[in-house]
Amino acid sequence: MKRPVRVLLDINVFVANIIAQDRGHAKTATQTLVSMVAGQRWGLADRSQLVISFEMIETLEAVLQRLKFAPDRIKAYSDAIIDIMKYGPDALDPYLILGGEERFTLPDAEDAGVLATAIGAGADILVTDNLADFTAKDAAVVDTQRIFTTSSGQRTLQALRYEIAGADLIVAHPFDVMEWMRLGYDFTPHILWDSLRNSRKEPCK
Q1: In what order do the strands lie in the sheet with 5-9?
Q2: Which of 17, 48, 97, 139 could form a disulfide with 34 if both were Cys (CB 3.0 to 4.6 A apart)?
Q3: Short-list 72, 71, 52, CA closest to 11
Q4: pLDDT band at 133 (very low <50, low <70, confident <90, very high)
Q5: Residue 92 placed within a domain
Q6: 10 Å Cβ neighbour count for 124?
Q7: What is the CATH number of the domain that holds 163?
Q8: Is residue 204 domain-resident?
Q9: Pairwise CA distance, residues 189 & 168, whole Å
Q10: What whole-number distance in Å separates Cα of residue 160 and Cα of residue 128?
Q11: Cα–Cα distances in Å, from 152 out to 30, 107, 156, 161?
């Protein structure tokens, strides 16, 4: 991609990142993705621009409060995320949602707001660990890979694509995003989608 890849990391990615740090983990998928956007990188070749909304920052702070993180650490973390966006290559301010959530038939209003943020800010990819929460009737779906984790057992991951109001957005799991980087995929949404469809294996039984 010739311009910076616009990346929206869902709240669960930022939460997993700070928890992994506290547990002494290194180079997890979420840590790698947050590190990349912090360094304005995306894979080996591309630059990145973080996209986030004020509402998402507030949600992140509320989640970290429930998890008993210290107030000063929460503020430092959220301020750092805002700075990543403001001082990125496109110099964006946190996106303010001015409606649009109602167009998505998602079970949770917060998830609809996240999707509206991604669409409204022209994000290329939304990375989340909760793919099911972002699946609406407007989304095209393709199976990607089968994974096994100790927390959720064996499951098949999927990628979603939204083409709405001139926007083109891919929604994907961190594991898939890391794999696509390893394979050197172009993250231009329509090119990435064609790569996923062409590489799709037989449906899992």
Answers
A1: 41-42, 46-50, 5-9, 125-127, 167-172, 153-164, 140-149
A2: 17
A3: 52
A4: confident
A5: yes
A6: 25
A7: 3.40.50.1010
A8: no
A9: 6
A10: 11
A11: 17, 21, 11, 24
Tokens of 150: 């100790």
Q: What is the pLDDT of residues 155-203, one digit of tens each?
A: 889 999 999 878 999 999 999 999 999 999 999 999 999 999 998 654 4
- Whether residue 205 is contained in a domain is answered as no
d(CA 101, CA 155): 29
pLDDT one-digit tens code per residue, 32-49: 999 999 999 999 889 999
- 91: CB partners within 8 A, 6+ apart: none
Residue from 27, 34, 26, 18 nearest 68 by CA: 18
Q: Are 101 and 112 in contact (CB under 8 A)?
A: yes
Provide CB contacts within 8 A for 72, sequence distance 6+: none
CA 90 to each of CA 2, 14, 168: distance values in angstroms, whole numbers, following the listed order: 13, 21, 18
Residue 149 pairs with which residues in a beta bridge?
Answer: 153
- Number of domains within the chain: 1
* Nearest alpha carbon to residue 10 among 71, 51, 62, 66: 51
Domain range spanning residue 48? 5-199
Residue 25: inside a domain: yes
Backbone phi, psi, residue 87, to 5°: -105, 20
